[in-house]
Structures are given as C-alpha cells and as structure tokens.
Specification:
The complex is a heterodimer of chains A (289) and B (317).
Chain A lengths: L1 H31 L6 H19 L3 H30 L3 H27 L12 E4 L2 E4 H23 L1 H11 L1 H6 L4 H26 L7 H15 L4 H21 L5 H15 L8
Antiparallel strand pairs in A: 1-2
Helix pairs in contact in A: 1-5, 1-8, 1-9, 1-10, 2-3, 2-4, 2-8, 2-9, 3-4, 3-8, 5-6, 5-8, 9-10, 9-11, 10-11
Chain B lengths: L2 H21 L2 H27 L6 H19 L1 H23 L4 H27 L4 E2 L6 H24 L1 H11 L1 H6 L4 H23 L5 E2 L1 H4 L2 H14 L5 H20 L4 H15 L7 H23 L1
Antiparallel strand pairs in B: 1-2
Helix pairs in contact in B: 2-6, 2-7, 2-9, 2-11, 2-12, 3-4, 3-5, 3-9, 3-11, 4-9, 6-7, 6-9, 7-9, 11-12, 12-13
Classes of the chains: A mainly alpha (289), B mainly alpha (317).
Chain lengths: 289, 317
C-alpha cells in the first residue's frame, strides 16, 4: 500500500509541475497564438535564479519564489517587446503568426540555452533543501516534494481563480473567445498581450524554482518540459486552464505507473503514445463537450 | 539571361562540383560536402513544407533513421544498398506517421514532428540497449571520401531534379493548392490526404538517404550524434531564409549558411549557437519572406533609381 502511494505521489508531483508549465503556455497560445517552443528555457532560468540566490546569497528558495515570479514577468515583458510584438502586428493571418512565432521560439531556445551555458557551465547543479523524510500512511516522502506539490497546485488554483473572478481575468477570457469583440468593448490589446505573456513566463519560472528544490538542474533541462506541456495542453484542450491542471496531473500519473510497469527509458515513448492517442481519438481534448 | 546561357552555367557548375574531389584540398572537399548535404535537405524539405505550409520539424528523425540503417546494414548490404534502404525506411516511417498526424495543422503539426526526433532516438536507444547491450556503433569498411562525396552529390541532384519536376506537374499544383486553401483544394477534387502523405514520404526519402550516405563520415555513430536536432533546425532555417517557395532560394542560402556556420563555429566555438539564434530572430522579424524576397526588392529599387536619374537628366537638359 505504502509503495503504491509513493508511486502515485511521485506521479502527482511531476504532474503538478507539468500543470503549472502548461497553464502558462496555454495562456500564451490561447490569447496570442504564440507557440512558444522556448517556454521550458524560462523554466530553466527560474531554476538557475533560485539556485544562485540560495547558494550565493543564502536566501531560502521558498522566500525567493515571489522574486522569481517578478523577475521572469519582467523578462517576459522584455521578450514580448523585442521578439513578438512586431510579429503579431505585422502578420497577415493567424497561421502566419503561429509559424513565425515558432521560428522565433527556436531562436530564443538557442539564445537562452547558450547564455545559460556561458554563464553557469554545463555541469549539473543542485542544493539540499528540506530533505528530511516524513511518514504519511505508511509511505515515506521527503518534505521538499510535498512542498513542491503543494505550491504547484496552489499556483495553478490561484491562477484559475484570478481568471475566473478578477476583471483582468475576465478580459483575458473575453479576448480568448473573441478578439474583435473584446476590443470593441474597450479591452486594450497593447496592455493585455505583454501582461499575459509575462504571466506565462512567471509561471514557468515558478515551476523551475520548485523543480530546483528537488532535482539537479542543467541548461538543457527545459526542453522536455516544453514537450510535456504541449502534451498536457492537448489533453486538457486549448484555452482551458482547468483542463491543463487535470491533464497535467493525469500525465504525471500515467508516466509514473507506466514507467513502473515497463521501463524508465520508455518514459518519452509513453508520453508520446498518450499524445498521439488523444490527438486521434479526441482532438479537442479529453474534457471537450 | 536566356535559357541557353543558364543551361551552360548549370552544366559548368555541375562539372566543377563533380571534379571537386580531384582538384580541391580535403578541407574544401569536406566543406563542399556539408554545403551539398544541407542543399539536398533544404530543397527536399521545402518541396513538402514550402508548398503546403505544413511546418515539418522531423528532418532530424528521418536523417537519424537513415544513419542507423547504414549502421546496421553497412557490413552485410554494402554502401549503395544501405543508402537506398535508408531512404526507403525513412519514407515508410514518414508515410506511417503522416497517416496518423497529417490532419493536424499549424503549430500542432510542427510540435508533433519536432518530438518525432526525440521519440525515434529514445526508441532506438532502448532497442539497441535491450537487443545488443550497446548504444553506439563503430562503422568498419567505410567507403573512401570520393565515393561518399559523389553519392551525396547524386542525392542532392536527384532532390533538386525531382523537386523541379514535382513543382512543374499536377502533383505540385495539388500541393500548392493545399498550401493556399486546403478545403478549397478538396472541393476541387484533390485527394488531399493521399497527396500530403505521398509528398511527406517523398521528402523524407531524401532526408533518410542523406543520413545513410553521410553516416560513414563519423565512423562511430550513436543516437545523440545522428539525431542531433541541430541538423533539422539548420535545414528549416536554411529553407525559410532562402525562401521556401523557390528552389534557388534554399540552394543559395545553404551555401551561405554552411559557410557562415563553419566560420562562426571555428571563430566563436562557444557563442556560435547564440549568434545563430539571434540571427534567426532578426531574420524572421525583419525579412519574413526570406532572401528570395530581397532580390525583387533590390531590382525595384535599382529600376526606380535609374528612372529617377533619367528624369533628373531630362530636367537638366
């Protein structure tokens, strides 16, 4: 019993991270049609900032979490201004925006990854934080994993609530439903686009900061999370943040149990199997009505 | 330029390329080989993706599959059979995957093909580990560099020839119709599904054959080397920068970019991917039509300048 609980928990923890990354990506894609393939690189940046703040400045990773979010938000505003604003303004159609933003994402991926290589080197980095084990119902977890899971779920729920209950959230949802209609009732694209792009990167940064508490980090850690996030978006449905949360947790569970019953090196094949199966059977997402 | 002098120039260039192994130094030959490889990859990529606007990022998957066919079969089958088989395996794989995912458009298609490279890499790593208890393979009795060079030249020429033939024929028109408006093409009687799968497989054939032909350059192959996403990335970059709707665009930019990459790699070994990434962003932002769109722009400007000069001269006289 304890073993199965541990397995399920490890799946849910990875799944929680997937959910946070995917919600950010989903917001960007849903609102602006920016398919940001470099999303995972900003997760990596968040992880490195946290590692740096902890080992050099001695700040607790949890206390640094809001700072990471703010930092990545500002990075997001800058990246949007420099790379994506022109694409969105000058492209003649939605498909052109998708193709060009994808290429820019590739460029960004190489730029950010290589900046990280130049700044921090290719070695695996890590630190020990809250590594004490606790017993729950016969299963043993290290504290940091529980903290990571808790924060991942809380971050997702806070964002869902913000989208649902605040005026800004309402504007974002209106913009997703009908860009023209939203502009007609006075919602300003010039403000909303950079803010949402920044929020997406802030979420990726938070996910990276959480990951750095548990796993070792390296400049190439981001890419697999981008691919997983895209799978989660397919599971949950485009534009649906709640779908992302459930889809993320589900993918984490599938991976954990799948790897247990087959082989750890088949993880990528498993995720892809799920991805292709869902695309073929329910292209609008598992929860579409 | 008239047709006759174009043909003459083409033939002269062909002779020069075919005579390279006996004239140029080893370094020049290897540089030319890299140019030819990317020319073949970029032209075959744009045959499908340029015409249909389906952004495929699967080139490194096909390339790696071809390379592994050589890795498995070089000793038993011999080099020429391995090259052809590499192409056939890649084409078969593309047809299989294409049947499943070619109804996806836009970003979804790009992402799923991007992941294909990773998928095949993991699958082959797993297969090699469980079947042969090894990951890499040493290639013995590799053919000499002249044979490899001429093979790559032949594949590139075939890619250019077939791409030109496709563009001139019904098949190319159907592909362009899909790129312009898929539903309309369907209404007008194009079997879009079959056309897409056939073109996807055809372009994969060249990528696979290229991988199989070039694999012998390494003497030791392992999944991280042959499924290097950089190869696919560079191919797409070259084709888009050159202008994916033309043949001459990808050809010209493959020469420019191979030389540029080689120069940057030698000069700035650490920062070269950073520079390349920045360059890509700038090009997408400020020259979205590719280098091919530069030529008409330049011609217009020269023509306008000449007209202005004439008008100015008239006013003075």
């Amino acid at each position: 019993m304890g073993f199965w609980l541990e397995l399920a928990a490890s799946g849910l923890i990875t799944g929680g991270i997937y959910a946070v990354v995917a919600i950010g990506l989903n917001l960007q894609y849903g609102l602006m049609r920016i398919m940001n393939i470099s999303h995972g690189e900003f997760l990596m940046l968040g992880a490195y900032f946290t590692w740096w703040a902890h080992t050099v400045l001695g700040i607790s990773p949890l206390a640094f979490l809001p700072a990471v979010a703010l930092l990545l938000f500002l990075v997001g505003l800058l990246v949007y201004r420099l790379c994506f604003r022109r694409v969105i303004r000058s492209a003649p159609s939605v498909e052109v925006i998708e193709a060009r933003s994808l290429l820019i994402g590739f460029g960004l991926m190489y730029v950010v990854q290589n900046v990280a290589y130049l700044a921090w080197g290719a070695d695996l980095r890590g630190y020990s934080f809250l590594a004490e084990p606790v017993d729950i119902a016969g299963a043993r977890f290290t504290e940091n994993r529980l903290v990571v899971f808790g924060f991942a779920v809380v971050a997702s729920l806070v964002l869902l609530a913000a989208l649902r209950f605040t005026l800004l959230g309402k504007a974002v949802r209106a913009m997703m439903q009908s860009p023209t209609g939203a502009q007609l009732v006075g919602i300003d694209t010039a403000v909303l686009h950079p803010v949402v792009f920044g929020a997406g990167l802030a979420l990726a940064g938070v996910a990276g900061a959480l990951l750095s508490m548990v796993y070792e980090i390296s400049p190439s850690m981001g890419e697999p999370y981008t691919v997983s996030a895209l799978i989660v978006i397919t599971l949950g449905g485009l534009g649906s943040s709640a779908g992302c949360l459930i889809g993320g947790l589900l993918l984490g569970l599938v991976e954990a149990f799948g790897m247990h019953f087959t082989n750890p090196s088949l993880k990528m094949l498993l995720s892809y199997g799920v991805f292709i199966a869902v695309l073929l059977a329910r292209p609008k997402g598992l929860f579409a009505r | 330029m008239n047709t006759r002098s174009t043909l003459g120039a083409l033939l002269a260039a062909l002779f020069a390329l075919a005579a390279m192994p006996w004239l140029a130094s080893d370094f020049m030959l290897s540089l030319t080989l890299t140019c030819l490889m990317y020319a073949g990859l970029a032209v075959s990529w744009s045959m499908f993706s340029g015409a249909t606007n389906y952004l495929s990022l699967a080139t490194s998957a096909f390339f790696g599959l071809g390379a592994y066919v050589t890795g498995w079969g070089l000793g038993t089958l011999g080099y020429p059979v391995a090259v052809v088989l590499g192409g056939v395996v890649a084409a078969a794989f593309a047809a299989l995957v294409g049947a499943a995912v070619l109804h996806l458009r836009g970003a979804y298609f790009a992402v799923i093909t991007f992941g294909l490279g990773e998928l095949v890499r993991h699958a082959i790593t797993y297969f090699e580990k469980s079947q042969f208890k090894t990951v890499g393979r040493v290639l013995t009795d590799t053919p000499d560099s002249i044979t490899v060079y001429l093979t790559v030249l032949l594949i590139t020429l075939a890619a250019v020839g077939i791409c030109a033939a496709v563009r001139a024929g019904r098949f190319g028109l159907a592909l362009a119709g899909i790129g312009a408006d898929e539903e309309r093409a369907q209404t007008l009687g194009v079997d879009t599904r079959r056309t897409k799968i056939a073109a996807f497989a055809l372009s994969a054939f060249f990528a696979g054959a290229m991988g199989a032909a070039v694999a012998v350059r390494w003497t030791y192959i392992d999944p991280t080397a042959v499924f290097n996403p950089f190869i696919g990335f560079q191919t797409v970059l070259i084709a888009m920068i050159g202008g994916a709707h033309t043949i001459i665009g990808p050809l010209a930019s493959s020469v420019v970019f191979s030389l540029l990459t080689e120069f940057l790699r030698l000069r700035f070994p650490y920062a070269f991917l950073f520079i390349l990434g920045t360059l890509l962003i700038l090009l997408v932002l400020y020259l979205p039509g590719g280098l091919a769109s530069l030529w008409p722009m330049l011609r217009d400007r020269i023509a306008r300048g000449r007209r202005a000069a004439l008008a100015g001269g008239g006013a003075n006289g």
